[in-house]
């Protein structure tokens, strides 16, 4: 049994407006599975497919109070592309952000609701990922996260050091998933989290149990109507195990 990363869940004060920003930023199409939810995916995309990790924006009245522990890095292909993308994103409502990054070759920005993201330096070797080059998760111990997530999913571990751990779909397509060592301590529920799915025919209950034997913990939302299981990884980052698809 195994799972795979299929989407990013992002809380939003206004899912429709923020969804419009990210649709323009990524060049993706917009749909909605119901009130308070805006779904983004590439045009012509057949979900789920590792060629893209799609984005779900979910309405939430809770304010953003701290730096997100999960963010995306956007890919660029040249110095001109990097500059053009930064300018275009500013025109869409993004702002430059300072998260203590210092003098770095990439550009740190925030979307109209303050969610941090990076526009990567075009010298970065990442290629053929689509507009989202990397999904980045802050952590204290990349090696421990590599052990858990490397067994939780069937993605391939490409790199692990004391600084970061990097995984990607075993099919060699789509964005990378990076666990990046940071000194920040997790203090609140993550407004941006990962959603996983088992493969068709797999039973999500045994899969949830397997994830817990690897070090995940179950989170009880007190709502018997939800069709997914909420878990947290060994560092407390919430994620959802959805139904097989």
UniProtKB/TrEMBL annotation:
Residues 8-120, 135-242 form the Glyoxalase-like domain. It comes from the Bacteria. SUPFAM superfamilies: Glyoxalase/Bleomycin resistance protein/Dihydroxybiphenyl dioxygenase. This is VOC family protein.
């Amino acid at each position: 049994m195994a799972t795979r990363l299929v989407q990013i869940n992002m809380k939003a004060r206004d899912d429709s407006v923020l969804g419009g920003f990210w649709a323009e930023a990524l060049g993706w199409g917009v749909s909605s599975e119901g009130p308070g939810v805006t779904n983004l995916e590439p045009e012509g995309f057949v979900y789920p497919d590792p060629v893209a990790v799609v984005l779900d924006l979910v309405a939430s009245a809770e304010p953003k109070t701290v730096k997100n522990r999960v963010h995306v890095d956007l890919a660029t292909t040249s110095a001109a592309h990097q500059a053009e993308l930064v300018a275009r994103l500013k025109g869409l409502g993004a702002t430059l952000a300072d998260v203590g990054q210092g003098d770095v070759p990439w550009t740190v920005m925030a979307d109209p609701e303050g969610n941090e993201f990076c526009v990567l330096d075009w010298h970065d070797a990442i290629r053929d990922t689509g507009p989202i080059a990397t999904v980045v998760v802050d952590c204290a111990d990349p090696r421990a996260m590599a052990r858990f997530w490397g067994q939780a999913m069937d993605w391939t571990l490409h790199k692990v050091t004391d600084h970061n751990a990097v995984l990607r779909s075993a099919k060699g397509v789509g964005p990378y998933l990076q666990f990046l060592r940071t000194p920040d301590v997790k203090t609140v529920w993550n407004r941006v989290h990962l959603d996983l799915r088992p493969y068709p025919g797999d039973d999500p209950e045994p899969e949830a149990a397997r994830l817990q034997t690897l070090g995940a913990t179950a989170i009880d939302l007190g709502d018997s109507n939800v069709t997914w299981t909420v878990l947290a990884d060994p560092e407390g980052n919430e994620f959802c195990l959805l139904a097989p698809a």
